[in-house]
Specification:
Elements (H helix, E strand, L loop, with lengths): L2 H6 L10 E2 L17 H13 L4 H15 L5 E8 L4 E6 L2 H8 L19 E4 L9 H5 L4 E9 L3 E9 L7 H32 L1 H15 L3 H15 L3 H9 L6
Parallel strand pairs: 1-3
Antiparallel strand pairs: 2-3, 2-6, 4-5, 5-6
Length: 255
């Protein structure tokens, strides 16, 4: 396959990775004291988030901190919501969260509470026993829910959700802290993603250099144009730069 055709090949996006946080790992992280100033608590949380070295560890740290930081929270999870209301959990504090977020059937003729996140930054359930359609949450012992957007585009949302075993557990203070906390989580995730990409680029620079050279020769463009074409194709097709470069250097069928 020629390079131009290769760059136009449509590649199906990969399924998001999933990360589990075992409840017993919480012992090393004490809950923030009720009297601690909010600014100091958020500073501590931000420091822990930015100490992470990769997106997966940032997600793990974020759900642990959410339980400790948001007043009333007993469980937490981070998930990706697709336009058709499918939901995949990326990190969760315990199995009850995974069950709550992945057993919901979007084809059951109703829109779950988190559908509201497409048009609002926050979605909440005050009492699942009295909220029509949220009986599955009540059956799991989850009475209150506060779900907040982390990232959003036209195709998918990334959301942080905290759960409580008590009804009406999340007040205005919890909402305010939750929104401030998600801002820190979003920044930490972006930073961790960039660090991971830079590390990956350093590891694969030789392979990418070979692919750039091939594109320069085949497409009769300079080095900057060849690399820019490679990056654009990687973003458009949701393929890692390393993998796309390998396909150019060693196309299918090469002995």
């Amino acid at each position: 396959m020629c390079c131009g055709a290769l760059l136009r090949t449509v590649v199906t996006p990969c399924t998001p990775k999933r990360f589990v946080v075992v409840a017993s790992r919480f012992s090393d992280l004490t809950r923030f004291p009720a009297g601690l100033e909010l600014a100091e608590a958020l500073t501590q949380a931000a420091r822990k988030l930015h100490e992470t070295s990769a997106p997966d560890s940032a997600l793990e740290t974020a759900v642990r901190l959410a339980v400790d930081l948001v007043p009333g929270a007993d469980h937490a999870g981070i998930s990706v919501v697709e336009r058709d209301n499918r939901r995949s959990t990326l990190a969760w504090t315990d199995d009850v969260v995974r069950t709550a977020e992945e057993d919901d059937d979007p084809g059951a003729g109703r829109r779950p509470y988190w559908h509201r996140l497409w048009t609002a930054p926050v979605a909440a359930v005050e009492d699942s026993e009295n909220d029509e359609g949220e009986g599955a949450l009540a059956g799991l012992g989850l009475r209150s829910v506060l779900s907040l957007r982390l990232r959003a585009d036209r195709r998918r949302l990334t959301v942080l959700t905290v759960y409580a075993r008590k009804p009406r557990a999340f007040d205005e203070t919890a909402l305010r802290i939750g929104r401030l906390f998600t801002a820190h989580v979003g920044i930490a995730l972006d930073s961790a993603t960039v660090r991971e990409q830079l590390t990956e680029a350093m590891r694969t620079r030789d392979l990418i250099g070979q692919a750039t050279g091939i594109l320069m020769e085949r497409l009769n463009i300079d080095a900057a144009g060849a690399f820019d074409s490679l990056v654009r194709a990687s973003q458009r097709e949701n393929v890692k730069l390393r993998d796309l470069a390998r396909r150019i250097v060693d196309p299918p069928g090469t002995p």
